[in-house]
Design brief:
Largest sheet: 9 strands, antiparallel
CATH superfamily of the largest domain: Uncharacterised protein PF07273 family, DUF1439
CATH architecture of the largest domain: Super Roll
Distance between the termini: 105 Å
Shape: rod-shaped
Number of helices: 8
CATH topology of the largest domain: Bactericidal permeability-increasing protein, domain 1
Length: 474
């Protein structure tokens, strides 16, 4: 009877051991993995200023060919309608056209030099004549054509020319050809003929302005801005241009400089070289948007690196509670989705435990470390801490791991700023240079992904694309 009782007790003990009712350790299951819910707050619209320059030399060259440099014939008499017995003749030569710009308006000017002669056939006396500019300095007249310039939404240059003035060069006697003895005003005849000649060519001027090809240059720059810019090894800046707006214009000599703003959504990414964008040049937008560049800086800290860093802070550390001791033997970090990460711990000492903590990481700008202020036992781990292991759930134990589960990431803001500053100041192509000044980096945010820990910040900069005349052309 006694032997049978001992046998029953042994079977009962084995049964208890097999069912875990008398465990000497805890082996909790891993936390459930959920989907990443990575939401990046949109940054303010960015603008990259580009001073567009286009030379009006082709327009002037075309005008030189179209508008005669000489007109009239001093030997060809013309009747004066209101005075049938009187005739005049003139001959004029034009200096080369010159162009100057006032804002977006091109002013095309030239000086005309001329000679004139008048004849009067009297019934009762021999024909008499007089002239000006033949035996002395030639009188002068000035012509001016104005052509307001604009870029259309489909990237074409348009001008609507008008004749501003055709007038004597001055009121000095040398610039007024009046044959006083015959009361003939040759100057007004020359000015009228010159104006008529220019009116005939005005539409031609507008056609030549429209023939200035500017779209190919913009398409080239647009594609250039879609190429990733390498900041450092495996760190890239993508400007992501989205729209183009027209800014103010300033003319200098014969070159018109128009400030254009490229709206963009810049972002710094890590990894292999990102693919180049292939978006087509959008229509020109007249609305002004954005104020400088606002760049999303992003770095991904892999969990292998994060694990190594947190192991340096935890492995070998001892936590005590009510005379019991626990020693951290192993530690590992991994992502579980929904912006959270898990800290896997293997503990030894007064108890053997394999447990998991979960929480949301944040950045401490003072210590330049990542930590998890809401670190808490995963539900499955907490449910496993029963039958003598409840003491592991005490606040002292949780506080210990919240305090020590920190890992340094360095001064990511200063480092990111330096890399961005360098990357934003470089030649993108022959004759095309990007210049910028990073004015601020702020708002570092941390987001735990299943693949790694994303560190993000906003960098503000003033940027400009300087294009040398004729640059970037193949």
């Amino acid at each position: 009877m006694r032997r049978q009782g001992v046998k029953c007790a042994a079977l009962l003990a084995a049964s208890i051991l097999a069912t875990g009712c008398d465990r000497t350790g805890v082996d909790a299951p891993a936390p459930a993995i959920t989907a990443d819910a990575d939401t990046v707050s949109p940054l303010a619209s960015s603008t990259l200023d580009i001073p567009l320059t286009y030379d009006l030399a082709p327009v002037i060259a075309a005008m030189e060919k179209a508008v005669p440099t000489r007109f009239g014939n001093i030997s060809k008499r013309q009747a004066v309608p209101e005075r049938p017995r009187m005739h005049i003749a003139f001959e004029a030569s034009r200096d080369p056209f010159r162009v100057s710009l006032d804002g977006q308006t091109a002013h095309i000017t030239a000086v005309v030099h001329y000679v004139g002669r008048g004849w009067y056939d009297s019934r009762f006396a021999p024909e008499v004549s007089a002239s000006c500019g033949i035996d002395n300095e030639r009188p002068r007249a000035v012509i001016e054509i104005a052509a307001p310039l604009r870029i259309t939404s489909d990237w074409k240059l348009r001008g609507r020319s008008r004749i501003v003035r055709v007038a004597p060069f001055s009121e000095d006697k040398r610039d007024l050809c009046r044959v006083t003895v015959l009361s003939i005003d040759v100057t007004s005849r020359v000015i009228g003929a010159t104006r008529s000649l220019l009116e005939e060519k005005r539409s031609f001027i507008d056609e030549k302005i429209a023939a200035v090809a500017i779209r190919p240059r913009f398409e080239e720059w647009w594609l250039l801005l879609q190429k990733p810019i390498q900041l450092t090894d495996n760190v890239w800046l993508k400007l992501n241009p989205t729209a183009v707006r027209m800014g103010k214009s300033l003319g200098t000599r014969r070159t018109l400089v128009t400030a254009l703003g490229f709206s963009a959504s810049p972002r710094v990414v890590t990894g292999n070289r990102p693919a180049e964008g292939n978006a087509q040049l959008p229509p020109l937008d007249s609305a002004a948007v954005g104020d400088g560049l606002h760049v999303l800086l992003e770095a991904i800290l892999g969990y292998d690196v994060a694990t190594r860093l947190v192991q340096e802070q935890l492995v070998g550390k001892t936590v005590e509670r009510a005379g019991r001791k626990l020693v951290v033997k192993e530690a590992r970090l991994f992502g579980i989705g929904s912006g959270k990460l898990a800290l896997e711990l293997r503990l030894a000492g007064s108890a053997r435990a394999h447990v998991f903590f979960v929480g949301t990481p944040v950045y401490d700008p003072v210590s330049r470390e990542l930590f998890v202020p809401d670190l808490e036992y995963d539900v499955a781990s907490a449910n496993s801490l029963v039958s003598g292991f409840e003491w592991l759930k005490h606040d002292d134990v949780r506080t210990f791991f919240r305090t020590h589960a920190r890992w340094p990431v360095g001064d990511v803001i200063a480092t990111g700023r330096a890399h961005l500053q360098e990357g934003l100041n470089r030649e993108l192509a022959p004759g095309v240079r990007l210049t910028a000044e990073v004015t601020d980096v702020k708002g570092l945010a941390v987001h735990a992904l299943r693949s790694g820990i994303a560190l993000r910040a906003q960098a503000d900069a003033n940027a400009q694309l300087t294009i040398r005349q004729g640059g970037s052309r193949k």
